[in-house]
């Protein structure tokens, strides 16, 4: 452009118009520099200024959205990812982040649509997307439960407004240790500011509870524990004299690794400087602490270890690491205290606990039960709190703690009081700026997983009943005395896992083409384990095919219905109630011993006794026919004069029913 031939006022206007663009470019350069150093809060300040002067391109919009996501400002993250996914040239990964933001904001139906879109653009993530969509359905189901699982309330006394407070842990009697970035200065030293969050570095605090249950003012731990960088997620021995805690070290490496001092992020983002976590311990000496000692398995040059959690007896310590050989991004490990007081070689907690995602913030209650947070198991969004069944070497199940213990946001750092019904947990569920708070909770109805298995009853070549998995059975499930119900389908292994509550009763009806319907009532006692096993046994809907009832025994020369036989006939009554149109012949058979006439009369009386019992249970008389066959229908070679073991004679002494 030749300025000599342009009027002066137009030249001035062009120069003035170029100034905002130049300023925007300068602010973008500053923002990008902060972003690349993981100073996302500082980057956002510059990105906002630049966006006011110039519409962001796709790269800048992605970085703004990422910065909101990584500072856990989910409302703004959702708004920016919505813009990014509509822009040409954007990475499909942004669709996933958009879906995650929607889910974190409780918009489950919209999130499902985005997960579906993500899978369409990236076919190799189809399985993961289906899992996340199922998680959305599960979350909506948890939130629609009529009876709340627990009461959850934010604690105003412990939390500092505008700052993060999280991961409370028992500390002696009536006290806790927790993590906060409220930034208390100590010994004339000013708390530094962390560029990732724009708030001070993390420190450990202690708070005590008075006789009325009120929390006193939190105080920062001694500077021996709190140095000038991050100090977080601690666990103390039961007497409060030994403390294990997490400390962060900045490592200069051009290698993948962890960048977030309290959690973990996608390793591909890390380029040069990384934060690595280490575990340290210290002994209490009156009002001060001894020199800190490093955990034997710290390896800051290669990986992180953090989030220590001691068992009540101090013999097991769980922790989190991204060390090589793990299952996912971060795994839970445990180590056993050796006779000499040292810690043994770390052991991965295994694939029932750990997933390809992140497992973190372990906690062990008074009974030695493990709790932890995960974004890999099926949950409501972000991190959810889970409870593990079994022991450190033999886990049997992992159960989501359900709503409202969990929310669509991050929920973690749980601990229980001595009553095992109340406790504290961390969550950012009520935060708009990404900060975490400590909440109290009271369990009203403890969750339980009801593991339903559908089986087909068949006879093998030895004329013995066997039960084989029956897949794709439709289940109609209702809580007793409740009007609403839900439907489900067992998987290819004949399994279905549903969430229930201890102390409640449930009614299930199973149906499958070609099989008799099956009803079962499940009563879950308040003392039940965290998983309740339920088996539903199905028989084929075929006319004149004998179905042997198991465990129908009679005393010698008697036909009275014994209590053990009554239980089996009760099951038959339930089958008849579930299939009101069928009529059956109920037959009794004897073995070959005694005379033909004797066995005939005895079998007829036993068959009639069984029919009479079913009539007493409310089954219409015209649906039942009693038939005694004596020893005329033996199922094996044990005829008169043949020596057979008692087991083979028992095969002949049977009660059957046939659909007529």
Automatic annotation (TrEMBL):
Origin: domain of life: Bacteria
Signal peptide stretch: 1-24
Main subcellular location of this protein, as a coarse class: membrane
Ranges where the OmpA-like domain occurs: 541-660
Cell location: Cell outer membrane
Gene3D superfamilies: OmpA-like domain (3.30.1330.60), Tetratricopeptide repeat domain (1.25.40.10)
Pfam families xref list: OmpA, PD40
Alphabetic keyword roster: Cell outer membrane, Membrane, Signal
Any one of the GO CC terms: cell outer membrane
Protein name: WD40 repeat protein
């Amino acid at each position: 452009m030749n300025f000599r031939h342009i009027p002066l006022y137009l030249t001035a206007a062009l120069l003035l118009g170029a100034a905002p663009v130049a300023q925007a470019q300068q602010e973008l350069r500053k923002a990008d520099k902060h972003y690349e150093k993981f100073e996302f809060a500082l980057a956002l300040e510059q990105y906002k200024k630049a966006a006011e002067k110039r519409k962001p391109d796709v790269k800048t919009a992605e970085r703004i959205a990422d910065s909101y996501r990584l500072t856990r400002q989910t409302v703004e993250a959702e708004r920016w990812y919505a813009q990014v996914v509509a822009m040409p040239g954007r990475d499909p990964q942004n669709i996933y982040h958009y879906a995650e933001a929607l889910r974190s904001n409780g918009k489950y139906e919209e999130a499902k649509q985005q997960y579906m879109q993500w899978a369409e653009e990236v076919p190799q993530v189809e399985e993961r997307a289906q899992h996340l969509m199922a998680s959305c359905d599960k979350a909506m189901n948890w939130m629609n439960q009529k009876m709340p699982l627990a009461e959850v309330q934010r604690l105003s006394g412990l939390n500092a407004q505008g700052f993060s407070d999280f991961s409370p842990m028992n500390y002696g009697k009536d006290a806790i240790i927790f993590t906060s970035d409220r930034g208390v200065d100590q010994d004339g030293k000013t708390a530094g500011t962390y560029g990732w969050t724009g708030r001070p570095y993390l420190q450990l605090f202690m708070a005590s509870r008075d006789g009325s249950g009120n929390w006193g003012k939190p105080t920062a731990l001694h500077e021996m524990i709190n140095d000038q960088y991050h100090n977080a997620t601690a666990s103390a021995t039961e007497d409060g004299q030994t403390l294990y805690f997490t400390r962060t070290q900045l490592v200069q490496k051009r290698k993948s690794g962890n960048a977030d001092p309290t959690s973990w992020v996608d390793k591909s983002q890390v380029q040069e400087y990384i934060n690595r976590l280490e575990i340290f311990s210290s002994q209490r000496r009156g009002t001060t602490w001894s020199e800190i000692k490093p955990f034997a398995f710290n390896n800051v040059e290669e990986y992180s270890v953090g989030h220590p959690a001691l068992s009540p007896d101090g013999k097991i310590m769980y922790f989190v690491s991204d060390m090589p050989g793990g299952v996912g991004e971060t795994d839970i490990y445990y180590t056993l205290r050796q006779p000499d007081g040292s810690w043994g070689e770390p052991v991965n907690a295994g694939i029932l606990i750990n997933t390809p995602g992140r497992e973190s913030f372990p906690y062990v209650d008074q009974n030695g039960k493990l709790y932890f947070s995960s974004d890999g198991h099926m949950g409501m969004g972000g991190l959810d709190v889970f409870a593990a069944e079994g022991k450190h070497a033999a886990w049997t199940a992992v159960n989501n703690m359900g709503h409202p213990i969990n929310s669509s946001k991050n929920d973690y750092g749980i601990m229980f009081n001595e009553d095992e019904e109340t406790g504290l947990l961390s969550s950012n569920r009520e935060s708009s700026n990404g900060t975490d708070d400590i909440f109290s909770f009271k369990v009203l109805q403890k969750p339980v997983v009801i593991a339903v298995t559908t089986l087909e009853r068949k006879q093998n070549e030895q004329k013995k009943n066997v039960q084989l998995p029956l897949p794709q059975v439709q289940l109609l499930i209702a809580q007793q005395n409740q009007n609403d119900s839900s439907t489900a389908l067992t998987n290819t292994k004949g399994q279905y896992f549903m969430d229930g509550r201890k102390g409640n009763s449930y009614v299930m009806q199973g149906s499958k083409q070609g099989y008799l319907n099956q009803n079962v009532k499940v009563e879950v006692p308040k003392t039940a384990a965290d998983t309740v096993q339920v088996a539903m046994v199905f028989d084929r809907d075929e006319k004149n095919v004998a179905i042997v009832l198991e465990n129908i025994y009679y005393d010698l020369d008697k036909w009275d219905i014994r209590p053990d036989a009554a239980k089996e006939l009760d099951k038959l009554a339930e089958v008849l109630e579930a299939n009101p149109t069928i009529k059956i012949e109920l037959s009794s058979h004897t073995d070959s011993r005694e005379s033909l006439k004797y066995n005939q009369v005895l079998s007829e009386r036993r068959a009639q006794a069984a029919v009479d019992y079913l009539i007493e249970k409310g089954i219409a008389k015209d649906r039942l026919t009693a038939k005694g066959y004596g020893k005329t229908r033996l199922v094996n070679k044990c005829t008169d004069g043949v020596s057979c073991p008692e087991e083979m004679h028992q095969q002949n002494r049977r009660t059957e029913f046939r659909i007529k």
